[in-house]
Amino acid sequence: MTASSAPRPPRLRRSAGDRRAQLVQIGLELLPTTPVQELTIDEVARRAGISRSLLFHYFATKREYYTAVTRAAADLLWEHLLPPPGTSPQEQVSGMLDRFVGWVETYRETHLAFVRGAAGGDPWVSEVYEETRGRLVEVALTALGLPDDLRRRQLVLAWFAFTEDLVGQWVEEPTMSRPELLDLLHDVLDRLTAR
């Protein structure tokens, strides 16, 4: 038997769940340089070593694929921002702010596309965005020891909108030091929630 006629090792067949997870992971790997709405199905399929049509076997539409990637990215953001157990309330908020600034520094274009997609009325982005913000508001209210009532929820949501906008601008064109930015964001939150 020659080397060219040697049998090839059997191809590893993935389960549907494994393949879906692989495809979402590829989308996540592309996100630092490509907003989710700009991911090309052809590139994702190429990286997975499958045909475009096979990708649509696992995700019926591009929108379904983009939603899965967006949800996975939001879950990663959520896990990244959550304070470690046993962190004091003051450190929880400060740590979340610091980690959020770092996230936007790393994934600025993707984060802005996420925020703008939600603001632009893309229902699949808006749903994931609203869920993520709602979870973050609950963590902030708990860390600050505030009651979860409509008024405070609205104030913290407004603060999140301010924070997202300011951090997005700051990452593009820093007009203050990072510690000054974090102090300003914390101060605005304190003033809003003290009323």
Explained architecture:
The chain has 195 residues and is mainly alpha-helical. The protein has two domains: 13-72, Homeodomain-like (Arc Repressor Mutant, subunit A), CATH 1.10.10.60; 82-195, Tetracycline Repressor, domain 2 (Orthogonal Bundle). Helix content is 73%, strand content 0%. It is built from nine helices and no strands. The chain has helices at 16-30, 41-48, 52-58, 62-81, 89-106, 108-119, 123-144, 150-172, 178-194. Helix 5 (89-106) runs antiparallel to helix 7 (123-144) and helix 6 packs across helix 7 (123-144). The mean pLDDT is 84.
- Please give the oligomerization state of what you see: single chain
Element-level helix/strand string? HHHHHHHHH
Distance between the termini: 83 Å
Global structural class: mainly alpha
CATH architecture designation of the largest domain: Orthogonal Bundle
CATH fold field value of the largest domain: Tetracycline Repressor, domain 2
Strand content: under 5%
Count of DSSP H/I helices: 9
CATH class division of the largest domain = Mainly Alpha
In short:
The protein has 195 residues and is mainly alpha-helical.
Properties at a glance:
195 residues; mainly alpha; Arc Repressor Mutant, subunit A; Tetracycline Repressor, domain 2; 73% helix; elongated
Give a topology summary:
Layout: H1 16-30, H2 41-48, H3 52-58, H4 62-81, H5 89-106, H6 108-119, H7 123-144, H8 150-172, H9 178-194
Helix pairs in contact: 1-2, 1-4, 4-7, 5-6, 5-7, 6-7, 6-8, 7-8, 8-9
Protein name: Transcriptional regulator, TetR family
Domain HTH tetR-type: 17-77
Pfam family, one: TetR_N
